[in-house]
Design goal:
Multidrug efflux transporter AcrB transmembrane fold; alpha+beta; Alpha-Beta Plaits; five-stranded antiparallel sheet
Length: 677
């Protein structure tokens, strides 16, 4: 440490300088193109490639509750002439007019659409009669709203995340210096992660969208700060045992590194299972997030230790740990909790498990039918326009189904006989010899009835390619079902293998996996009740997969921290004393880490896009349950109740007994458990 600390800090300074040249350019390679959110091999994705370049339309819906007037019709006709649009198309109820504005392929690009919408809005507002409502909607407007929401995420998310982490570090350590050192390290990790993501996207084809870029920030800060808390906690202990701070940091790294590396490896491997997903947006998130965790691990195990050594004991000012001082590994609260679990492990884990099962009942209130109108926390203009359109025109008018065929005459007659089809519009040329036949459905395009109609169209026309918004939603639903069936078992398998290698046991990993799955069910049930209370009861299936991934991979971290310390203490004290001892001495640091991670994910709850808000709530609730219930009561109670068989087929031999520190007062272990241990 004496020799390498300055070169290591210098190397990280150089890395940060170089990374800063690329980190801020992630937005340049970030794309929220529709293909990034669709299944790779679905019909609806293929339909996008058959769509004529000019076949994008902006819809302008005008409405007056008392009925449109002659003045209204004249104003809309003037807009149609100025914008070269089709219309006005009157509604049958006489209270609305529709203007269809065709856009070129260049106009609907992400960097151009905002300007186009501004021009159209200015034209619509100029000379609009008083009392006539006008809304811009359709595919281009909806895409622009999504792009705008994601663009607003980056800076806000970073500022709020840094602020939350800084506040929690200050409350944890009550030291302004120790507040800065983890922030410097995690900031360097974030810069490196963003730079690597940019370079991989630019040169290796890595897909980055607004959601994965936002989650990357939260993951790096949340996981990186957790690793920092674990290392700093052990370093504080070692400073009281070693006069030389270099020896103290070496001892702290030796003791904490296995748990930190195991934790990071679990998360990285779990994230990489996403590359097997068929949904483009899901598959792209895996490598992006794995890069973030890898950079957090690297910074917290190479940069942070060097910063701590350079600053020395003064990093903890005003609560400076002195050599020879009492090593206070536990807190009175955790001593009492450990005592309760040690005395009554069976009832503790059983009651806890029943409570968690009770929380899963809330899942029954959860719906996976998240419609287009529910995609934003507050409705943007495009959603209001869709609702206005649906109120005055056939429900499917806002988003016709695109049927591509090479036999338009035969297809038209077949389509007219499919239940749920309101009308079949005139065909137009597609690409590559295909003909586009627009089909207007009689049901809301984002609802289940419309998806059923699309399924009937596909069954009736097996040679056609069926696309459009409703077909995209149908393909997303079926693909997410497939991904959930594949990815969830893969995640569980990865976590199980890591736990087996780490604990050198089979029984304990099985118990831990059961606890993790139970924790996820409880978190989802509790979150469902929150969603219903705030008016967002429906979720996207992405929330289920992402919630499971992050809760299993990140939530098991705290169990890893506990069980690696338990293995150490069991070897010194025996099973019955070692497990509660591990709970006692890790209680404070794991609780702090859980609060930090929950708070960083809770930042996503402030985001304007519903599925990201819901992911933030699910993970935050789950991490809190893991921290205060699963790791504190369920796991230690279960492991104590099973006894030494938890470590089967491995056998932990008692290394020493004379030198083993006693449990704190209040953490007493009944004689019968000591005999079992």
């Amino acid at each position: 440490m004496r020799v390498v600390k300055w070169p290591a800090v210098g190397a990280w300074l150089l890395i940060a300088i170089v990374a800063s040249m690329f980190a801020g350019r992630v937005g340049d390679v970030e794309t929220n193109d529709l293909r990034n959110w669709l299944p790779a091999t679905a019909q609806s994705t293929r339909a996008l490639d058959l769509m004529p370049p000019s076949d994008e339309s902006l819809l302008v819906v005008y409405a007056r509750q008392a009925g449109v007037t002659a003045e209204d019709r004249a104003a809309v006709a003037a807009d149609a002439a100025a914008l070269r649009g089709e219309g006005p198309i009157p509604a049958e109820d006489g209270r609305a007019l529709l203007l269809i504005v065709p856009l070129t392929q260049a106009q609907v690009q992400e960097d151009a659409i905002a300007g186009v919408l501004g021009t159209v809005r200015a034209e619509v507002d100029s000379g609009r009669p008083s009392g006539l409502d006008a809304r811009l909607t359709g595919g281009p407007a909806a895409s622009a709203d999504f792009d705008g929401a994601f663009d607003a995420l980056d800076e806000t998310l970073l500022i709020v995340t840094v602020s939350v982490v800084a506040l929690l570090l200050l409350l944890t350590y009550r030291s302004p210096v120790l507040l800065l050192l983890p922030l410097i390290a995690v900031g360097a990790a974030s810069q490196l992660a963003n730079a690597l993501v940019y370079l991989c996207a630019k040169h290796l084809g890595l897909v980055v969208d607004g959601a994965s870029a936002g989650i990357l920030t939260v993951l790096v800060f949340g996981a990186g700060t957790d690793y920092a808390l674990l290392l700093i906690s052990r370093y504080r202990e070692e400073l009281k045992r070693h006069e030389d701070r270099h020896a103290a940091i070496r001892a702290a790294l030796k003791e904490s590194l296995p748990a930190i590396v195991a934790s990071a490896a679990t998360v990285i491997l779990a994230l990489l299972t996403l590359v097997f997903a068929d949904m483009n947006s899901t598959r792209g998130l895996g490598p992006v997030a794995a890069i973030g965790i890898g950079c957090a691990l690297l910074a917290m195990t190479t940069l942070l230790p060097m910063l701590l050594v350079l600053v020395g004991r003064w990093a903890f000012w005003p609560l400076i740990p002195r050599f020879g001082g009492t090593v206070r590994e536990s807190h009175g609260l955790w001593s009492r909790v450990a005592g309760i679990v040690a005395r009554r492990p069976g009832p503790v884990w059983m009651v806890t498990a029943l409570a968690l099962v009770g929380l899963t009942v809330g899942v029954s209130a959860l719906s996976t039918a998240l419609g287009r109108e529910d995609a934003f926390v507050s409705k943007p203009e495009s959603v209001v326009g869709f609702e206005l359109l649906a109120a005055h025109y056939p429900a499917g008018s806002s988003s016709p189904v695109d049927v591509f065929t090479k036999e338009p005459a035969a297809v038209r007659s077949t389509l007219e006989g499919v239940p749920g089809v309101a009308r079949v519009d005139e065909p137009s040329p597609g690409l590559h010899g295909w003909t586009l036949v627009p089909v207007v459905l009689s049901d809301d395009p984002s609802g289940p009835a419309a998806r059923d109609t699309v399924a009937r169209i596909r069954a009736a026309l097996p040679a056609a390619v069926v696309g459009g918004e409703t077909a995209q939603e149908l393909d997303k639903q079926s693909t997410m079902d497939r991904d959930l069936r594949l990815i969830i078992p893969l995640i569980l398998l990865v976590v199980f293998v890591v736990l087996v290698v780490l604990l050198r046991a089979v029984v304990a990993p099985v118990l831990l996996l059961v606890s993790v799955v139970l924790s996820f069910g409880a978190a989802l049930g509790a979150s469902a009740l929150i969603f219903e209370a705030i008016g967002f009861a429906a979720v996207d299936k992405t929330v289920l997969l992402m919630g499971f991934l992050f809760l299993v991979a990140l939530g098991v971290d705290y169990t890893i921290f506990l069980m690696t310390r338990a293995r150490e203490e069991v070897a010194r004290m025996g099973h019955a004393r070692g497990v509660p001892r591990a709970l006692e001495v890790t209680g404070g640091v794991i609780t702090s880490a859980g609060l930090v991670l929950a708070a960083t994910f809770a930042v996503l709850a402030m985001m304007p896009i519903v599925f990201m808000m819901q992911i933030g709530i699910v993970v935050a609730v789950g991490v809190l349950l893991d921290t205060f219930v699963v790791r504190t009561l369920l796991v230690p109670g279960l492991v104590l109740h099973v006894g030494r068989g938890s470590w089967w087929p491995g056998r932990l031999r008692l290394q020493t007994s004379a030198d083993s520190p006693p449990l704190s007062e209040g953490a007493g272990v009944p004689p019968e458990l000591v005999r079992r241990g």
